Amino acid sequence: MPNEVELKLRIARKDAARLRKHPAILAATVDKPVTRKLTSIYYDTPDLQLLDAEISLRVRRMSGGWFQAVKAAGSSLAGLHQRMEWEDIIASGQPDFTRILDPQLVRIFGDEALRAALAPIFRTEVQRTEWQLKFDNGDAVELALDLGHLVAGKKREPITEIELELKSGNAARLFDLALILQQDIPLSLENVSKAQRGYAHYRPQPPTVFKAKLPQLSRQEKASVAFRKIAWECITHLQGNQDVVLHGNDVEGVHQMRVSLRRLRSAFSVFRGLLGRETTDPIIEELRWITDILGAARDLDVFVTQTLPPLQERFEQHAGLVKLGEKAALLQTRAYRDVRAALNSQRYHRLLLSLAAWLENERWKTEGTLDPDVAALADATLANRHKQLRRHGKRLQEMPAEERHQTRIAAKKLRYTAEFFLSLYSGGKSHAFIHRLAQLQDRLGVLNDIAVTEQLLRRLAGSRPDKPVAEALLLFKGWNACNIEHSLAHMDEAWHRFVHHKPFWG
Predict the structure, then answer these.
(1) pTM above the 0.85 mark?
(2) Statement: 3-199 belongs to CATH 2.40.320.10
(3) Where would I find the CYTH domain in this sequence (predicted)?
């Protein structure tokens, strides 16, 4: 079963000439580049049965012959596309079902009604230039530059992209090469295939929020293996919400991107014994950069969508609340402009490429460091973080806001760690533990939101607020005091339920 591994990148048409002459390509090219015209026709039924089955059927005209490709479900991560692919030479531009031999595909395409309903639904017309690249360590990569159009009915959209396909060797080579090229040519990761772009004309779907998935670990694995799995899951979570932020209107997208970055940094902390600071610190610094930009937008989202509406409903048309709302909405718009500019920047795409190359090449490993079994590391880390939270959690009612904030961080670290390692433990105790921990975290989160609100109100009101805004600040002061009292009243119950729940590890 062939497995295609390729990295897709967007490039501006005006930069194609610079790519052709790039020293890194010229140095690694083993044969003269080949340029040819490709016409690819994608087939499906009128109700898109192949799309629903996560299969694409493509017939391509190339070099005077016809080639059929069937691609099955795969993954797209940091621009890296991995999927199963079967390609065969066929006699004409019509699909040849006799060339499909995989048992599962035979069952699907053996349906006579489906075969009869198949018809061309869109096509791509590109001029492709291919370079065969060979590197000193034996890695082999095919670089393809595609310039052309996608045609769906009467609609045409441009195609200007690079595909780096791994022919042999380590997939990290693809990211390393992309980073070298990006030093001189603006390149962006492309997580959408040509087939997905074509189907979007027939079944447009708004981007949806992507929640974190729990990594599947084995107790027999080493910690280094577990770290790579957990880190990739965090990156998947991050990228899964990019389109929501860039093209959607659900504020949860920013929240989930921020959570993914916090989870990733928490993973760095859990596995810090394996990580070399020399290569890790630059990654962490860039993660802080994008986290701060997302954080500014998230603080305003919480204020505009959660904190302010209850007061506006209670004190309808209060002039001061209206002014604060208008100012907050303006700042929110600006914050989203900053977020989108960051996500579209070369700095952000370089961060993703660098992070992927760092993981795949295992540059994070420290020379000579012991690599313990993940089960032993999980038991020790969970026990340590549980102890830290219990120590932080004493005197919750009396402690100042900053100490409660530290307790909240300790709770969050324990929760992320528990979720990372959840698959190592059986039974319902682990889920119940995390549920009670989440309840405690929620209570602490309410108090943190109030603290953030007070900082934001000072920014919104300015140094000399007018009378309506001054009145609104007093309303907020009373409202927040009431919420603090209510949260603290229920804090002891949440804490009691948590500390009396037996840990599931060890």
Answers:
(1) yes
(2) yes
(3) 2-205
Contact indicator for 387, 413 with CB cutoff of 8 Å: no
Residue 477 reports pLDDT greater than 90: yes
Q: How many residues does the chain have?
A: 506
- Mean pLDDT, the chain, rounded, equals 92
Query: Residue 82 in contact with residue 75, Cβ under 8 Å?
Result: yes
Query: Buried (b) or exposed (e) across 50-82, using 16+ Cβ within 10 A?
Result: bbeeebbbbbbbeeeebbbbbbbebebbbbbbe
3-state class of 46 per DSSP? Answer: coil
Going by the DSSP 8-state scheme, the letter that residue 445 receives in this structure is H
Query: Which of 477, 487, 479, 480 lies closest to 396 in space, CA to CA?
Result: 487
Residue ranges per structural domain of the chain:
3-199, 221-364, 372-506
Angle between helix 252-270 and 401-420 (nearest 10): 80
Superfamily of domain 221-364: CHAD domain (1.40.20.10)
* Residue range 226-271, pLDDT digits in tens: 999 999 999 999 999 999 999 998 999 999 999 999 999 999 999 9
How does DSSP classify residue 222? B
Phi-psi region of 214 (alpha: psi -120 to 50; beta: other; left: phi over 0): beta
Per-residue pLDDT of 398-457, as tens digits, reads: 778 788 888 999 999 999 999 999 999 987 789 999 999 999 999 899 888 999 999 999
d(CA 355, CA 75): 18
Q: Residue 446 and residue 488: Cα distance in Å, rounded?
A: 10
Specify the residue for token string 């802080």. Answer: 288
Tell me which of 449 and 133 has the higher pLDDT: 133
* Token output for 420: 């990372």
For residue 89, count CB atoms less than 10 angstroms from its CB and return exposed for 0-12, middle for 13-18, buried for 19 or more: exposed
The CA distance from 452 to 117, in Å, is 58
Instruction: Select from 3.20.20.80, 3.90.79.10, 1.40.20.10, 3.40.1790.10 the CATH code of 372-506.
Output: 1.40.20.10
